[in-house]
Amino acid sequence: MAYKVNLNANQQLIIENRDIQTSISLVSSSPGQQQSQGSSITTGHWTAIPQLFKTSSGFILEIESDRGQYFVQIQANGIQTLTTAPLLDNAQQLGFEEIHSTATSQSKMEFEPMAPMKPMKPMTMGNMSMSTNPMSMRMGNMSMQMGEEVKSTTTRHFCTQCGQEVEASDRFCGSCGHQLKH
Ligand SMILES: [Zn+2]
């Protein structure tokens, strides 16, 4: 899971939960150059999408994990973990945007009951799975792919009796003669 948020016109915050570590990167860009500073904190696994607040003393990142609650202060000159919960009463909340992690492999993507369901998020439910890039969907023995090539869109049908691949228009399986339902 990785998220980003624009702090201002030329600063971007990127956070990512890698196993029990939360990596926080602050990327500053100005014409012609890009700088980034990062920090990694042991937080445990996130149980919710972290929240970011804009306060008079900088930005406060709130992380909720299976180990508790963590607050991280993000200022122009650095990233530091706070030992006490800051006052966030009048703070403005900023929204995170989900991004594709560079470190997360396909196999790590799984459906998490705590996370809100988003149609674009790769997920697996029973024998049905869906992922993006390229868009593909699999339901039982039927699969569908939508990639850059439009012609690759396929729907395959299989005999429910013997598993032989059949045409969508076939009424009977060519291998065992089973009557096909469409
Ligand atoms: Zn058959």
What distance separates the N and C termini?
39 Å
Order of helices and strands: EEEEEEEEEEEEEEEE
The stretches of 5 or more residues where confidence is low (pLDDT under 50) are 104-112
Look at the structure and give the mean pLDDT: 80
CA-based shape: elongated
Beta-strand share of residues: over 45%
- What count of domains describes the coordinates? 2
**Helix fraction bin:** under 10%
Explained architecture:
The protein is an all-beta fold. The protein has 2 domains: 98 residues, no CATH class; 61 residues, no CATH class. The protein is 0% helix and 48% strand. The radius of gyration is 23 Å and the shape is elongated. The relative contact order is 0.12. Bound molecules: zinc ion (ZN). The site of zinc ion has 8 residues, from loops.
